[in-house]
Each structure stands twice: as C-alpha cells, then as structure tokens.
Amino acid sequence: MLFETIIPMIGGLVFFMFGMNVMSNNLERMAGGKFERLLGLMTSNPFISIALSAAITIALQSSSAITVMMVGMVNAGLITMSQTLFAIYGANIGTTITAWILSLAGIESDNPFMLMLKPENFSPVIALIGIGMLMLSRSDKRKSIGTVFVGFAVLIYGMELMGGAVKPLADEPWFAQLLTKFNNPVVGMFIGTFLTAIIQSSAATISMLQAISLVEGSLMTNAMAIPIVMGANIGTCATSLISSIGTNRRAKQVAVIHLSINVFGTILWLALFALINAWFNIPFFERSASPVTVAIAHSAFNIATVIVLMPLTKKLEQFVSKIVPDERDECAKLCGLM
C-alpha cells in the first residue's frame, strides 16, 4: 500500500503545489508590482474592491498571496482596514475558480470537443507550447508565460497522480470505515482545517477531495465533502497568520480578520448544514460527491459568507480591534488601571 497509494499521493500533492507555486510566482513577476499597485488603489466602493481583489486572485490562483500582500501593505500604511476587509472578501471568492477549472476533469462524453475541455487532455498541449516558449524565446516575458503554462501542466499532472493513487482505496474496507468518520460534520471540518493548515493551500485540499470523488465506487458523499471544504477555508488562514509575525498591530489585525471571516462563516453554515442534514432527508447530501459538487460547495460557502458579513463589516472591525487592540488602546487601559 505504501508504494501503490501513499507515495503516489504525496508525489501528486507535491507536483500540484509546485505547479501552483510556479504559476503564482511567475504571474506576479510578470506583473512587476502591478498587482500591489492595483490593490493600493482600492476605493471606498466595496463592490469595486471585491471585484478587483477577486480578479487578482483569479490571475494569481492564490488567495494566500493576496492576504500576504494585504498584511504587507497595511504594515506600510498604504491601505485602511476597511479596504483590506473587502479585498479579503474578493480573494475568498476569486480562489474558488481553481476548483471550477479542476472540476472539468469529471467531464464524461464521447464528443472530441468536449473531451478537449478536460484538463488532462489539453494540459499536454499547453505544456508543449510552454516548453517551446522557454527554449525558443529570448524575451523574459515570453519565458515567464511559458513557465506559467508548464506550471499549469504540472499542477494538472499532480491532480491526476493523486486521483490514480486513491483508486485502489475504493476496494479497501479500512478506507470505507475511515470515510464513515466524515459523517460527523465537525470531524470533517477539523480534518479540512488541519490538512490545509499543514500544506498551506486550500486549493490542494479541494483538489484532493475532487480526486477522491473521481474514483469509481467512491463512498465520499456530498454530506462528507461539504464540511471538509468549510474547514479548508479556515486552514488557508495559516499563511496570513504566519506572515503577520513581526509586523505592527494593524497588519496582525488583517490576519485575524481573514481568520475571523472564515471562522464565522464556518460556524454559521456548518451549524445550518448539520441541522438541515439531521432534520430533513435531502437526496443531494447522500449522493456521491463529484468535482462539480465540491466546486459548488466551495463557491457557495465563500459567496454566502460575504453576503452575510458585508452588512456587518463595522462590527467585524470592532471585534478584531478588541482581539488585537491598538497601542493607544492598550496604553489607555494601562493608564486607567494605574
């Protein structure tokens, strides 16, 4: 089992994360600081801030990159806390696009045009174009584009490797017993949180879920997958929390805001999900999970959380200010005690 499942699974995860990192780094390098300048131009209009942040996250394929930028820009005094909040809302929505791209792997059709929409079918072509640009181009920008293409192909190969690794597990009794523990939504949420915090990529966790759901005869239901998706959104906050170490209090507040948004959203929707799942027999929850349903759960969670929290933005700022107070607030408290 070690050589048939665990090592290929780890290898697939490594390829996926390497491809994601290569894409993100080269896209950021090609922009030459434009993304930071765009984020610095955030206006008081929350919808523009959300849309701009979502677009940058889609381009970088990483919400963690956006939140780390936010920490640095707030630390430098370039943007306000309110602007940061709306940017994080947008980043959370933008990061769901990755799951939708990977969901194309579940397309089943004999139509050659439909089959070419599957990432594993068109990624070799993209890789070939990328290698050609790397070898033949003299322009650094074209070489960076070629590297992005190759990084995407490596990412898709990593997902394929993970999917192939979990296929033998479908017939293993112990794996079926393990999946039954995911019937408890709180357990599923903690697994998603822990796994994402370790690998520091919600996209990687979501891709593993999608890979498992592709296995024929998989026992992973939508009721099992949804809490893991929610937990993945909490786990991804580990990157911004780590990046806030050694920064000023405003920057630390950005990391705490990111965590608070996803924790509040998870508490709300997990409680609602658990109640609905316990009281009502909804067929969708009992159906086998698929790459598309995982992508739907990821998008629905983030969009619904933004809709609920947007009217409470000021309250959220006040809450975070109490958890990580400004120096003057701490001084006032100390002076009052004295």
Structure keywords:
338 residues; mainly alpha; 79% helix
Give an overview in words.
By secondary structure, the chain is mainly α. The chain has 19 helices and no strands. The chain has helices at 2-31, 34-40, 46-60, 63-75, 81-94, 97-103, 112-115, 119-136, 140-166, 173-180, 185-199, 202-213, 222-235, 238-243, 249-279, 283-286, 291-309, 313-323, 327-337. The longest helix has 31 residues, at 249-279. Residues 331-335 have low confidence and may be disordered.
* Poorly predicted segments: 331-335
Structural class: mainly alpha
Biggest beta sheet attributes: none
**What oligomeric state is this?**
single chain
Provide the helix percentage: over 70%
N- to C-terminal distance:
65 Å
Strand content: under 5%
Strand runs, count: 0
The secondary-structure element order is: HHHHHHHHHHHHHHHHHHH
Q: What is the gyration radius calculated from CA atoms?
A: 21 Å
The number of helical segments is 19
Overall geometry comes to: globular
Summarize the structure.
This protein is mainly α and 338 residues long.
Please render the helix and strand layout as text.
Elements: H1 2-31, H2 34-40, H3 46-60, H4 63-75, H5 81-94, H6 97-103, H7 112-115, H8 119-136, H9 140-166, H10 173-180, H11 185-199, H12 202-213, H13 222-235, H14 238-243, H15 249-279, H16 283-286, H17 291-309, H18 313-323, H19 327-337
Helix pairs in contact: 1-9, 3-5, 4-5, 4-15, 5-15, 5-17, 6-12, 6-17, 8-9, 9-12, 11-13, 12-13, 12-17, 13-15, 13-17, 15-17, 15-18
